[in-house]
Structures are given as C-alpha cells and as structure tokens.
Protein 1
Amino acid sequence: MMRRWVLAASLASLAGCATKGNVRRVETQVMVLRAETARHESVRAAELARLIRLQQQVIDSLTATRQALRVMDAKTTNDVTDMMRQLLAVQEVVGQSQRNLSQLRGQLDARAEAQIGTPVAPAVPDTAVRGPGTVPAASAEQMYNAALQQYRRGSVATARRAFLDFLQQYPTHPNAVDALYFVAETFETASPDTAIARFTEVTAKYPQSARAPAALYKVGRLYEQSLKYPVRARAAYQRVVAEYPRSEDADLAKTRLEALKP
C-alpha cells in the first residue's frame, strides 16, 4: 500500500511537468512493483499449497486412526465374547464341583454323626485287661480333636454335640474350658441368650483361664449387637477392664465403652 501511495504521489507530482525521463522512471517503478507483487503472490500460493497438503495429511491420519479404532473395537468385542463364554464354562465347572463337594460334605457329616452317636465304652486304664469283644474307648484327645475338626469345617451342630459329649465324659480335662467356649460360640448366631449363658459359664467355672476375659467380652458384644442392651453391654465391658486389666480383651472393652458413652 505504501508503495502504491508513493507511486500515486509521484504520478500526481509529474502530472503538471512530466518529461520523458520522468515518464520512463515511473514506468520502471511500475514494472518493479508488478514484479514484487507477483513474487509475493507466488510465495502466498506456495504457502497455501503447503497448508493444503498439511491439512490433507491430517485428514489422512485421522481416517487411518478411525479405521484402526474400528478394527480394535471389533477385536475387543470378539475377545470379550470369548472371555464371557470361557467364564460361563468355568462357572459351570465350579458349580458342578461345589455340588460334588456339598454332597461329599453331607456324606462326611452323616458319617461323623453316626460315629458320634455310637455308644462309646467308658475309658479304662491302659493297665487294665480288656475282655474279649471290648470296644476300645476314644481318648479325650481324639474326641476333642474330632469335635474341633467339625467346628473348623463349619459343621456347627455336629461340633456342638461332639464338644458336649467330650465335656460329659471328660469334665476335668484341660481342654474342657476350650470345649465349653466353642459350645458357646456355636450359639452366637442362632441363640444369643444361650450363647451368653454358656460364655458366662466359662467365666464362672474357669475365672483364671485365658478364655475367661474373651468370654466376658463376648457377653458384652452379644448384649450390644444382638440383643441391643447397652446397659448390660457396658456392665460386661467394665468387668473385663476391672477383672482382667492386662488382657487384650480389656483394650477392646475400653474401646467399646468409649463408643457406648451416653
């Protein structure tokens, strides 16, 4: 624009007193200006062409990416379908295995109950002479371990009966406190009142046992959670803290007492 203005001014100034030399210079400037304009237009055209090529490359890249995503999506869909089929097959196998295990477990429980229900001869000293046909008595350890095994397998009713049989035959055995504690635990869900009575029995019969503070703490938990008696729960927790201050259950009881503050 500046150049054109200068040219126009020159033409205007020469309008009045133009000579041949002046006219020639003006024509030369016009030619130079045209050439420069043509060069600028060529540069702009080249730049525009470059931008168009770049745009096309971007479009091509986007098209290729979109196609790759379509292929990947189809492949992922097929993979997920295959995985779902395999998962269903595995679930079917697991279900069949669980059914087989349940049947086997039921057979074992029935066999264990039959064995527990079989009358057992009273224990006799090892030095005693057994008569012909005498059935060997199960030892205390055998009865206790069999009951504990049933309990750990989840056969609560069978384990309870086995622990009670053990307590009936061996009431003074060192494992009697544990057996009574486990009997109490078998009632926790089905009969909280009975569980509380059994845990209280543990504390009353074996106050110096390591099971005593745990049993008393469980009394508090049953009153608090199952029976919704916070007053009785606090009383049980306070007994744990007062009577067994060095036990781990005393720390648990303190925590519950803080939670039960009015």
Protein 2
Amino acid sequence: MLKVLLVDDEPAIREGLKTIIDWGKYEFYICGEAVDGEDGLKKILELHPDLVIVDIKMPGMDGIKMIQESKNLSCMCKFIILSGYSEFEYAKQAIEFGVNAYLLKPIDEDELAKKVKEVYEEINTDKKTKKMFTQSVSLSKDKIIENLVLGELNMELISICMETYHLDLIWDSYEVILINLQSTHPAGNKVRNNIRSDITEIVDEYGLGYVFETGNNFGILSKYNHHKRNSTPFTKLLKKLNSTIDIDVTIAVGKKVKNIIDIPVSYETAKELLDKKFLYGPEKILMDEEIRNRYKAHETDNINKLHIVELIEKLYIAIDVNNKKSIQDILDNLKGNFISYHEVEEKIKINYMNVYSLITNKLKIKHERGKDFLIPYEQVAAEIYSKKNIQDLHRYILEEFERISEQLDQSRADSTMKKILDYIERNYNEDLKLKVLADVFSYNSAYLGRMFKNFTGEYFNNYLDRIRIDKAKELLKGDLKVYEVSERVGYRNTDYFYSKFRKYAGTSPSVYKKKLKK
C-alpha cells in the first residue's frame, strides 16, 4: 500500500478527504495530516508519503512554497493541489514544480479518484523503471568485476570503470573467493537468485567487497583481511546456504595479492582449489595458503614413488594372504601419490578403477572360487564414480579389498607359513621373490628365510624350484613342447629350465618327455 498525506488548514476539508474516495481501492492509505505548509513539510520528511494532497492558501507557509521546499530537499513524493483559486499564476507555478494535478474546490470525487489512480500508476511505473535501472547498473558492475578478476582489463580500463560505476577498489590488498554449488534442485534460476541474495547479505554485513558470477560459480572480490579470513564470514555463509536448500557448497579462497592488476593471480589459485577439491576431502572452506602448507607437508611424508607393476604385485599378494596392514599401507601409498602429484578427479578415479580391475582379474584366474567373492564390475564402477572426494573413494576400495581378502582367507589354511605355501602352490609360475613375500607379511627377508627353512626343510628358492619341476613333469606328459612347459612353470629362459630340471629330475626335460612316450 502507498502512503498519502493530507495538508489543509481546514479540519473539515481534511476529514472530508479521508472519506470522499475509497483510498484502499486505489492501493493508498492515509498516513497523516498537517495543518499548514510548515507542518506539511515536517510530516513529509518524517513520514515519507508517496502522495501529498495539499491546499494552496494556508496561514504561514502556503502549499506552493511547501512543494518548492520539499523539492529542494529531494523529496520524491507526488503532489495533487486542491485550490479554490483558478488563477493562471498558481497553475503555472504548480507545473514548474512538477505537480501531478491541480484540482479546484469544491472537490469532484470522480475527478480526484481519476487523478489518484493516475498517480498510483505513475508511481508504479517509476518504481519499475528504477528497479530496471538498478539491475542494469548491477549487471554492468558484475561484468566489470568478472572481467577484472579474469584479467581482461588493463589499468587504464580499470580506472575508467572505477570512475564511471563509482567502484571503490583502492584497497591494501585483494583476494578472490569462488563459491561452487552442486545441486540438482529443480527450481533452477529462482534458487540461484536466492543464493546470490544470501551471499550479498553476508558480503555487505562484513564489508567484504563485490559479488559477481563467473561460469557456474559465484565469486566475491574481497578486501583481504587476515582476521576476518579465519573463516567467520565463510562459515556463516556456508551455514546460511546449506540451511536454504539441500545443496553441496564449496568455498575456495584465493591467494592474497597486493596490487589490483594481480587480482587474476588470486582468481587462478581459487579456481585451482575448486578444480582439485576432490583431493581435499569433505572440507568445504578451502584457503589457498593453508591448503598449500598442509599438502606441501604431505608431499614430504614417506610416500614411495609409485611403480604400478610392483604395487599391483604386492597388493595382490597382500589380498591373497589376507594381510590387512599391507593392503592398507599399499593403498595409502597409492593415495599419497595422487595427492602429492595433485592429480585431477577423473584421472584418480580411472586409476583406482584400473587397480581394482587388474587385481580382480588376477583373482579370477588364480582362484577357482575367486569370482564368487566379487560384486559386479558395473556396481563397483558406479560406486567409484559417485564418490565426492578421494578419502571416500579410498575408503571404499580399501573396504572392498579387505572384504575379498577375508572371504579368500576363510576358504583355506590359517597359519602364516601355510598361507605362504598355499600362495606358492597357486602362483609358482609367477616371478616370486622372498623379499616381496617378506614385505607383504611384514617380516625381515632373512628372518622369513629361516622360518621357511625350518618349516619346509628347504630354502625358499629350492622349494620353489622343486614345485615348478614337479609341475613341469606333469605338463610334459601332454602335448606341450619343452619351451612351452618352461614358460608355464615360471622359467622364462629355457636353458635355465634345463639346468634346474636336470638338478631335480636327474635328466633333461626332452629326454624325460621321450621316456614318457615309450
């Protein structure tokens, strides 16, 4: 509803004006009344009416003078003059001051109603025009701030824009804050507009700077303030956005820069934080300096350089023999490499998927029941690609390998040495090494070698050779050629196979095969 003020020295006229038309029908209500021009001017400044109905002739300050004074004070209200005088001079002055209507007494209620309606429509038109102008200026500022942040303005253009749009950008230092929203909310743009209002409210409350949009992200070009950046406004913003709608919000605070021309540097660091947010776990406020310090320290931890073939070999053995500590250590090393090299989300997921695929394919080949312990590949892929950070992905893969390992373990012998022998029995054709087995079982290789000798009566290599030669004797009964048998039992060099075969069988494999055919 709009406000109307009645100014007339005659009480009867004021009372009559209150009821002569249905003000509510025209979206007005009487907000006050004044007895003369001076009182009227005071009420205008106090009540801020949208429309003033005023008489001309009044004791003291007359209606024309009151209108003139209110215009001088930049009052934006509309005026309808009621007068018992039809002199041209009054009408001329009224026109000069932009009065909306000049009506003669006695008042014609239809004519007054018509003018009030016109004033209402004019006020609404003014409001719409003002709103459009404000939005237009705001959008222009938005684009200028975005161009400044993206490095598309030189200093000359920055100076021109600051002067043209009254931008206060002379600060001690600057930082760019990017706000990323992940939501499938169907409300679309309406929700986005609400979110912008929430961000603007916080920015205004803490005097941070300017809100803008770039791509799918909201941004804040902020005055750097060490005390405030310790999170209070960002925590409050995060809480406000999360309470508004079911939405995943990440706030990235870029590097502090001293010069206005270096603002794009701050933007790039904030963008890099968002691009690699997958590495930073469930954290929702990412500050450039803090993140870099933390992950720089992480890089210096005992992360071994990743060798994927060796990793797969060790991980497979650890799963096969159900050594959960080794499974975790190996996967932690894998995760540490991804973090230290700042890999992107897509590459990390592909690599985890490859590791899972290589391990499970080997299990299917080496274990008759291996496939019984695996869940469908598509289901695993869906789980991997649904994870929002590397910690959740890592935990899922670790738990999945531990589950598989546990089920494998339940199906065979239980002592450590029996597990090793069982493993050799099923993998004699692989490039088995005592050191690798010792690492997986967390033993010193020399100590494991002595344990092995005590348990089997043979050194590890002798035991492995004997198993391989026994398997070779079985295979030589078939149609395979000697070099094919050599490869099948784990000897890539046929000459070496011959020497080992003679050592354990007392003859060459070719002679052994010929004797079998007689």
Protein 3
Amino acid sequence: MSIVQKLTLSLVAMSFFVFGIYGAIHLRAERQDLRVTMEQETQILASSIQVSVENALRDQQLDDVQKLLQQLERIDPAIHIRVYISDNQVIHSDAEIRDWPDSLEDTLLQIARKGETSLLYFPEDQPKLLFFSQPFIDRKNVTLGNLTVVRSLEPMNRDLQATERTILITLASFVLVTSGLCFVLVRLTVARPLKRLGQGMRDFRDGNQPPLPLPVAGNDELARVTLEFNRMIAELGEAYRQLEVETQHKRGLQRALQNADKLITIGQLSAGLAHEIGTPLQIINGRARALIESDTPPDDIRRIAEILVAQTDRMTRIVKRLLDFVRYRPLDPALCDVAVVITEVLDMLTYEARNKDIALKFNQADDLPRVKIDKDGIQQIVLNLVSNALAAGSPGGGIEVDLHQDLMLKAGSNLPALRLKVSDTGKGIAPEHLTQLFEPFFTTRADCGGTGLGLAVVKTIVTEMGGSVAAESRLGLGSCFTVDIPLRA
C-alpha cells in the first residue's frame, strides 16, 4: 500500500471517528432540547385548558367541554385531550380513536383517580406519545377530576430523522471532499518528490557515474531531504572519482608487484634449476668417468649410454619447465604406470647409492592401476626425496621407496590416492627443523652444497597435484617422507 493510500485512509477513518462522535452528541442534544420544549408547551396548554374546563364543569356544561376539545383537535390533530371526572365519566372529542394498550389505559385511569400530576412517555424505549395529566378542582379546592393532554411525538421524531440525515450527508460530503483533497495534495507534495528521490537512488545504484542533482522545491522536510541527498551524491561522486584514481594506481602497483614477484620466482627457480640439473650432471659425469677408467662390457656401456640419454632428456625437460613457468604452464597429466616412472629415477640413482654403500630398495603393490598424472612431476618428487636420503645416509644404511594405493583425507572426505613413502636410516632431522623443511632456501647442508630448494619444489609440485606431503624423523635413526596424491581416472 502506498503512502498516499495510507494517509488518505487514515484521514477517512479519523474523519468518520471525530465527526461521527460530534454528530451523535449533536443529535442527542437536539432530541433532549425538543423533548424539554414539548413538555413545557404541553404543560402550558394543559394549564390553559384546565381553567376553561373548571368553569364549564362548575356550570354543569359538559357539552361545552366536549366542543372545546373538538375545536382544539381540529386546530392541532397531534393533540388529544381527555377529561376524567370523579364520577368515572370520561370526556374526549368524537375524533379521538386510539387503540392504546389496556395497561396504558389503566395507568391513565389510576393517575386520574389519585388526582396526581404526572408526565410520561409511551412506549418508554422509543416513545411515540407524550402524556401529561394534572388534577382540576372546584372553588372549595375539591378535586373534581384530571385533565390529560396527549401529544404525538411523530413531528419531533421526523425533525430528529431530518437532522440525522443532514448530519450524515454533511459527514459523508466532508469526508469525500477532504479525502480527495488529501489524496491530491499528498500525491503532489509527498509521493512525487519521494518517487524522484527513489529514482535518483536507483540511478546511482545502477549507474557507473553519480546522477545529476534532483530539483528542490520549497523548504519543507522533503526539500531538506532532497538537498541532503544531492550533497551526499556530490560527496559520493567525489569519493568515487578518488577511488577510481586510487584503483588505477593500485592496479599499477599490483602489476609492478606481480612482475617483481615473477622475477623473484624465476630467480628461485634458477637456483632450483641449478640444483636439479646439477644432480643429473654429477650422474652423467660419474658414468662417463666410469666408462673411461674401466673395461666395461658392451651391454653395460649400452645401459650407461641409455642412462646418459635419459638424464640429458631430463635436463632438457627441466629447462623447458623453467621456460614454461615463465609463460605459466599447468600440469600435463597423462595415463602412465607410476611404478615404471619411479623405477627409471631409481635406476639413475643406483650407481650413486652403490658408491655410498647404501641399499636402495623399491616396494610396489601388485594391483596399482594406471593413473593420469604428470610424469615429470613424479620423477622430480622421487629424485629430490631419494637424493636427500642419499645425502643423509651413511655406508651400510638403506633407503626404501614404497608405493601403494590408500585413502587420503581431503575436505572432510576420504579419497583414493597413491601413497609414496621414502624412508631412510640416515642421521635424521632435528625436531626444531621439521616445521621449516618445506620453506624455500631452508637447508641444513649449506656447507655441502645444499640450496634449500629441493623439498620446497616437492611441496609445490604435490600441492599443484592436489596432494599432501608430510615428514617424520627421529634424530640419529632416520626420516620418512609420505606423499599422498589423489587418483584420477
């Protein structure tokens, strides 16, 4: 319901309430005034007639009394007069024909016999007749009977009904006129400015620029609200322009920070690249020296040559990965046998493990499915973890790589996953260092050429695959790294 309808209906209800009460009070006062006037007129009329009736009865002229009553009824048909004489004789005009209830007739007769003065209405709830009775006496003050004047109240009731209709018509006319005026005035002075104000707010909400100031007319509350709205629009417009400038400035800073961050990341990857390429270069160097210094059978030469080719291919992929990172390339998962991928890496590290007298063992489940995974990422994870285990190991120790299918908890659900565990019997990791293992550039082997990027790279690759990596270690007893990677079809 609109504010115009609410105000109009409120005015209509208030008008009906106020003027309805006023009309009812006015009608009641009018009825009371008419009754008082009619009672006074009736008593005066009865007193006037009483003198004539007493004189006529004193002279025993009953016919004169009846003629007097007939003349009075001809003058005013609404007035009827009865004369009750003490000998139970009743004189009234011949024109009076009234069918009054027996109770009323008995009441009038009893009043006359008692010689009382009485005023009563009949019926009591909605009276139509007024009765006034008073005794008349002779010269010796002896009561001779009662004179009863009966007046019809129909003229008074007609006047009251006419007054009631006038009040209702006046009330309805007032309500209609005032409601119509209220509707028009409220629509012009309240609804229309509010509609413009609402449209201005919608324009400001939906538009990219602040709307034009709204027109202001008058000096009432709505005009002041409109002025405040225009000031608010102006201030918001200025704030909007300042925000736009600051946003452009912020975007420029963000682009500069992104470029700087990329350069920093490239620098980190370059250090990691040196670390990643350094390991296979050492392997290649070791195998080449073995070929030079030893009398190797042709089959072993071929196997070593294949390893050299695989390592150079791997270095090529690492360089390509760095270039792809500069351009940002997502992982490239493909269906493959993860056990075969891991075996290729372990074959590459077998020579180094044998030189350090460390047993390298690979355990794999028989029911492993072919999965869709990034092959280079897996090789890099295994290479970094096993290289760290070799660096931490000592002669006579061992490294076990275990691969099987298990469940991993992710987002409150258990998902099928590949679980890769790399455990060693090396010197272990101090408890205070466990929380920093995967931070870039954190290393405990700085004096041995460690860069602190191997585990950070493992963490990054595992995270990109949607998996997790955790480390457990006991100082002097060895370490175990567990990698969970969710399975994909």
Protein 4
Amino acid sequence: MLAIDSALDACSVAIARDGEVLSHVSEQMNRGQAERLAPMVREAAAQAGVAFDQIDRVAVTTGPGSFTGVRVGLSFARALALSIDKPCIGVSTLEALALEEGEDGLRAALIETPGASYLALYENREALIAPQGVERGEHESLLAEAVRGRPFALKGPGVTANAAALAVRASTLDPARYPSDPTYLRAPHVTLPSAS
C-alpha cells in the first residue's frame, strides 16, 4: 500500500505492508508539492525495497486542503494507480486526520485555512458529522451538541495528515466506498468577467 498526502502544509509518502510501515518520507511545505512528490515516491519505494509493480493499492487524501496540493496528490495517485492497474483509494483529509490513531470511540478533526474552517466527527469510524465547512469557532458548539458530554479526541487545527497511518488504514478500506474524487467544500474564489 502506497499512501500520499499533499493536501495541507506538507508532502508525505508512506509504504506499508500487512500493517507494518516500510518507509515514510515527509517534508513540511506549502508550495512545491508538484516538484517533490514523484521523487519522494521513488525515495519511499527505494527505502522500502519495493518495486512499483508490487504496490497493490494507492491511497490519497482528497481534501479539504489547498486547491493545488489536493490536485497534485490526486492527479499523481490516479495516474500511478492507472499505470500499474491497481485501485486508487481517496480518503477525506478530515477522516485521515480524525482516524489516524484509531477508529474506536469519538474522533474529530478540524482544519482551518485563512479563509475557511472544516470539521468532521466520527464514532467507531462512521461519520456523525460528515466533512463540512463551518464558520470559524462554530466547531465547539457543533461538537458539544453531537457528543453530548462524552469524551472525544480532536486533531487540529494546524496539523497535517500522517501518510504512514493512512497507508496502514487504507489497506482495509473498500475502494468502492472511497473514490479518489476531490472534496470541495466551498465554492471557488472566482471573479467572472462583466457582461459589458
């Protein structure tokens, strides 16, 4: 299993087999993922001693995150999976964060970018609050209402997904339930030309 994350402020690649992480390469960055991702995948494969035709799945975070980071990771993962004729599994960045330390109990993730906040909450791996955009600070009331006093774990804001944890977890996911489609939770910032 090869896992890729470039949605937030890092570019990370990991390879796992039978629940064991064979290699993990990660660099903090908010630009330059397009230039570093392919060399990092090659480095991870060399460290793991794995040839590309031995990879049986490719997993990638689908956002929310930076538009460019999400597109770079998704396009690379899809192209690699297609070239080796293996499934490509897409996992919400919020789900990857929330469930990277386990799936039991209540686990939430919060991503804050300069212009938006995103929240998701899971109970025993099922979404109680599906990934959604929220107003900054609104997550506290939404979580309180959903958990009703029960303890929960919160990842974020200001963290990036752990590709090694994603590689281990994604080997158990059904590709039919996890398509590699980007997660756009808000409309793009586009100014259309005037009619005149």
